[in-house]
């Protein structure tokens, strides 16, 4: 893969060029939902995902737009987290998995042979269900990614401070940066993980049920933070909390499972994808209405 000019990257500040190839960042002008102002980040077409012979997801088609929060909802086992991990190729780390169909990221086939999966995961960060800080200091947690990516040379303090400020954590930890990350509360640890993700200046942040292990106050802080971050990032979130999806997301995708009559295999399918206000007030599929009103799932 040839060197790509990244001058279109919206993130501020210079970055050193890595030695490995970079996936491109062209501006995609294709309108979504007849709205030409929405730039497409991901365009997923006919995507299926397999764990060996087991097909976990089938025929997924949707577009995810820039600077929006997209929520993935649906019953347990429908493949929401599996789909989320397809968006940054994290499933590549599981032997025997494969993706069929196409996932385009800014117009580039993300699974093409010349695309570097490590660079994909730098551009598309991940925050997991439970806070997972490294057994290091608060400072070193945030500095870890920039160091291995050779970013922030000469001003790592500024990189760490900026990431903590953007994660709404700086004022709470600025006087104890050398303390263990495990000294923080659960909600603070999750915001630290968000700071760690954004320290490498990604384009997209994926969040897999980021509030499920948090109390209501910490959940509100994370939701407020997501709303602030979408000004600069595209966010995709998996959540079982219908109220959370309704509060924070711009668009919602509802997935469910189909059960094969003969084998009993359960495969995740996309039922409906639309603006969140439509999904929660006037869904087009009865299965969506049944799920969000609690009649199944």
Structure description:
- By secondary structure, this protein is an alpha/beta fold.
- It has a domain at 40-132 and 202-292: 3-Layer(aba) Sandwich (Rossmann fold).
- The protein is 29% helix and 25% strand.
- The protein has a ten-stranded mixed sheet with strand order 5-4-1-2-10-9-3-8-7-6, with helices on both faces.
Query: CATH fold name of the domain at 40-132 and 202-292, please?
Result: Rossmann fold
CATH-defined architecture of the domain at 40-132 and 202-292: 3-Layer(aba) Sandwich
Question: Which class of secondary structure composition applies to the elements?
Answer: alpha/beta
Oligomer: single chain
Question: Strand content of the residues, in percent?
Answer: 15-25%
- The 3D shape can be described as globular
* H and E string: EEEHEEHEHHHHEHEHEEHH
Write down the Rg: 19 Å
Mean pLDDT: 87
Largest sheet: 10 strands, mixed
Runs in which pLDDT lies below 50 for 5 or more consecutive residues are: 1-34
End-to-end span in angstroms?
A: 44 Å
């Amino acid at each position: 893969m040839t060197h790509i000019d990244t001058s279109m990257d919206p993130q501020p500040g210079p970055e050193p060029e890595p030695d490995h190839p970079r996936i491109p960042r062209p501006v995609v002008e294709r309108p979504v939902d007849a709205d030409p102002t929405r730039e497409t980040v991901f365009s997923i077409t006919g995507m299926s995902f397999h764990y060996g012979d087991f097909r976990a997801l089938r025929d997924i088609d949707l577009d995810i737009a820039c600077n929006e929060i997209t929520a993935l909802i649906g019953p347990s086992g429908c493949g929401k987290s599996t789909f989320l991990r397809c968006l940054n190729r994290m499933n590549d780390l599981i032997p025997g998995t494969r993706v069929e169909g196409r996932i385009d990221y800014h117009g580039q086939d993300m699974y093409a042979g010349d695309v570097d999966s490590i660079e994909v995961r730098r551009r598309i960060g991940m925050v997991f269900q439970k806070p997972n800080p490294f057994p290091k200091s608060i400072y070193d947690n945030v500095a870890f990614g920039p160091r291995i990516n050779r970013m922030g040379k000469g001003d790592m303090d500024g990189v760490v401070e900026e990431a903590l400020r953007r994660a709404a954590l700086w004022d709470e930890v600025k006087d104890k940066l050398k303390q263990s990350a495990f000294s923080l509360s659960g909600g603070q640890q999750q915001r630290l993980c968000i700071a760690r993700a954004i320290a490498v200046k990604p384009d997209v942040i994926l969040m897999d049920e980021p509030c499920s292990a948090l109390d209501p106050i910490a959940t509100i802080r994370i939701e407020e933070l997501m709303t602030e971050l979408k000004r600069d990032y595209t966010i995709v979130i998996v959540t079982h909390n219908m109220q959370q999806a309704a509060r924070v997301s711009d668009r919602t995708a509802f997935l469910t499972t189909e059960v094969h009559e003969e084998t009993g295999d359960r495969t995740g399918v996309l039922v409906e994808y639309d603006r969140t206000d439509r999904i929660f007030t006037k869904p087009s599929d009865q299965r969506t209405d049944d799920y969000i009103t609690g009649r199944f799932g």
